[in-house]
Amino acid sequence: MHEAIQNIGQWGSAERHAEAGMKTGPDKNHCRGGDLSRQASAWLVQLEDAPEDDTLRAEFMDWLATSPAHLAAWEETARVSDLIVLAGPSPQIISSLPSGSARRTWFRNTRPARALASLAVAACFVWIAVPYVALQLQSDATTEAGELRQVTLDDGSRVQLAPTTAIAFSNDAAGRRLKLLRGEAWFDVTHDEAHPFKVIAGDNTVTVLGTAFSVRKTDSGTDVAVQRGRVAVTASDGMRSDRVELVAGQSVSTDGTVVTRGTVRPDRVASWRDGIAIVNDLPIGDVINRIRPWYKGYIIARGPGLSDRHVSGIYDLRDPDLALKALARAHKVSVSHVSPWLRIVTVR
């Protein structure tokens, strides 16, 4: 894993090509794990250096289609470098690949065995979709990239799911429990003192009697914001538990070790329900993370400014490319359109 990180910085343009042993992409004949990691690292920086190079893009797709191991190396290189957060493999990713005459145009100047390569690419996506399928089997309701869905529970409570979200619900004598398996949801809970409503997100539990609030599960923790009513958030790190009570207009973020309280305008809680992200002094990386679930593909973000540079603004989530363009125009962020399903965002 550390080798993949180091490789990112080792490939200068000329050195990359010479060391890879070909004019553009890495040597496709090497199949060992270390070689694949180096190749994936080289592809990453080359695609960013020359985003409009059709031949390079076609060679990258050939390399990606060679075997599932190549796609795994590409994913791992980006993941361990903190460059990518997947929206979750979904049918939309596969269906977003060009087809018919568009595919023939996009993949011009490539090897004749294009049909076989296309099938191999689809097979690779199916291969990485296994965790996605497992999540579907655990869930009572899910959404895909760019999809909003409202669910009415048996007790009358309403749950609105953000894109790429999964939930599981149970209702018994012990109370009402909803597990947020992935993503973000807004809740309008029916009052029932005898059966408290609990939302479980990782190690954090939100307990309510009757209120409207949002819960967002991230890789690092959980965010809770209250629109009306009152909730109690219990954050546990396995050793101790911290309980925080919130009322309308208050929020809390937990990362497993630190609990940070904040404020939010009640009418801006879960603004994603209206297809917009209203951000105030957030790191650019966090803004990109809010855009990702709406994009039907991959968004790779890299650069020191992801956490260092903070921004404020309103972004149209229903058009992720437009949101990225607005971010780029206002904050000198570089966005490269590598393929119909891949964007590379660089924040200097």
TrEMBL record:
A Pfam cross-reference name: DUF4880
> Its Gene Ontology molecular function terms?
sigma factor antagonist activity
Biased amino acid composition, Basic and acidic residues: 14-32
The record ties this protein, via InterPro entries, to: FecR, FecR_N, Ferrdict_sens_TM
Q: Which residues form the FecR N-terminal domain?
A: 38-79
Q: Which residues form the FecR protein domain?
A: 141-231
Which residues span the membrane? 113-134
The stretch of residues making up the signal peptide is none
Which keywords accompany this UniProt record?
A: Membrane, Transmembrane, Transmembrane helix
The segments labelled Disordered in the record are 1-32
Superkingdom, taxonomy of origin: Bacteria
**Entry-linked PANTHER family:** PERIPLASMIC SIGNAL SENSOR AND SIGMA FACTOR ACTIVATOR FECR-RELATED, PROTEIN FECR
This one is known as FecR family protein
User: Lineage of the native species?
Assistant: Bacteria, Pseudomonadati, Pseudomonadota, Alphaproteobacteria, Sphingomonadales
